[in-house]
Write a structure and sequence with these properties.
The chain is mostly helical and 334 residues long. It has 16 helices and no strands. The chain is 56% helix and 0% strand.
């Protein structure tokens, strides 16, 4: 039987207990997919699973503004990051909103016919470039800034997890590539996606996360972002100081482009496999190979460790993007 998991073997969701079981329950209630592989792949590291779900729930699902706009932001991010799994997922979720024409224009790689929708999609794409001038003015009002920024940052993280640890197939055998399947899958989620949800339900999964960044002040997005930042930083302990320094130096200089095939800064697989995996997770997770993982994933390392290392690299990139946000202009014009 085929599995969407590339390098880990998560425990069956039905065996989950505690906070992992609560995340699955909330996924079923609020996302419509209880056993979403995007989250199951994180289940060996519950301290990452809860905050990842919380940030997505509080921004994409329960955030201010329209669900269509937030789906377009997530789709734009996923296109910029070359994550076909997530692009397909947001195509299905746009079908769930009832805007089937918009969903199919995204599936065909076309610019949305509605000018505003096109601007929102482009804004999501632009977030990959740290400090991009295309981020201002925003295509949404200031009151919706936290939800849209949180959605973008959530998917900069999730895209990297998915590209590193899952296959490209959202549905078995790539069935989501068929228009009829996309539409039917979306329609099955319509009731969940079009329902208004109160913010904050996921925060009970977090341990005293703090208020979060200024752009999310006064919203439930802030604590969720703070919790994910704390959890992802735990993976730093899997690298030595020299490797940590290299990862931070390369990502600090990153301009949002996709690394070339001849990438001089990428460490050698045999000599520095951990630094190599972390850098790939940050800037080109779709280029992680079986050989890259096998070079590092040896005893005493486990699935739990691999998830944490990939999450660490992914969040270093997220932090680079977040720290370069042109906040005064972003918040003044939004």
């Amino acid at each position: 039987m085929s599995t969407p998991f590339r390098y880990t073997t998560p425990a069956p969701p039905k065996s989950a207990t505690g906070r992992v079981a609560e995340v699955y329950r909330q996924l079923g209630d609020d996302f419509g997919i209880e056993e979403a592989s995007t989250f199951v792949v994180l289940s060996s590291a519950p301290e990452l699973l809860g905050p990842t779900w919380a940030l997505m729930r509080e921004s994409l699902i329960a955030g201010a503004g329209t669900r269509i706009d937030r789906e377009l932001v997530a789709a734009g991010v996923s296109l910029a990051n070359r994550c076909p799994f997530c692009v397909d997922a947001h195509t299905v979720l746009l079908h769930a909103t009832g805007d089937h024409g918009l969903a199919e224009s995204l599936a065909r790689g076309e610019t949305p016919a509605d000018e505003r929708h096109a601007r929102v999609l482009d804004w999501g794409r632009a977030t990959r470039v740290p400090g991009s001038p295309a981020l201002v003015p925003t295509p949404f009002p200031r009151a919706e800034a936290a939800a849209h920024i949180g959605t973008a940052l959530s998917f900069h993280f999730i895209n990297r997890i998915v590209s590193a640890l899952l296959t490209d197939n959202l549905l078995p055998a790539g069935a989501q590539r068929l228009r009829t399947v996309r539409s039917l899958a979306g329609r099955s989620l319509t009731r969940t996606v079009t329902r208004a949800l109160a913010p904050g339900a996921s925060l009970a999964l977090l341990d005293d996360p703090g208020p979060g960044p200024a752009w999310a002040a006064g919203t439930t997005v802030g604590p969720a972002y703070a919790a994910l930042s704390t959890a992802a930083s735990m993976g730093a302990g899997l690298l030595d100081d020299v490797d940590l320094g290299l990862v931070h130096e390369v990502v600090a200089d990153w301009d949002g482009t996709h690394p070339p095939l001849a990438w001089d800064e990428l460490p050698d697989r045999d000599r520095r496999p951990g630094a190599r995996l972390a850098l790939l997770a940050a800037l080109a997770p779709y280029r992680i190979t079986d050989e890259d993982v096998a070079a590092w994933l040896k005893p005493p390392f486990t699935d739990h460790c691999l998830v944490h290392l990939i999450a660490y690299g992914a969040f270093v990139a997220v932090d680079r993007i977040e720290s370069a946000l042109p906040l005064p202009a972003l918040l003044e014009t939004s």
